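Model it.
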Amino acid sequence: QVQLVESGGGLVQAGGSLRLSCSASGIIFSIYSMAWYRQAPGKQRELVARITITSNTNYADSVKGRFTISRDNAKNTVYLQMNSLKPKDTAVYYCNALRVNNGRYDYWGQGTQVTVSS
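Modeled.
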């Protein structure tokens, strides 16, 4: 079975930092592109950051310069370091694993709440 387990969400003051972790099992982690998405109430789910199997990264314009995605293949874990948090960052954050060659494989974590207060 495939499982993505997220941790690190919670409450934080504006300007503060959080570090999200997502631990994967049941997949060959090193051949999956990993990403963080988020969804705020009443809004569409959006891509926050992605890291490829070669560790190339891309970010949503709204978080570029504040957030950093990284991966540790030895630990089957992807991280999202979030700095200078703003109230508009408040959302449920989801971990995603994607492989598109030799079929499409797309897995999701359960989501973790991030709330940023003024």
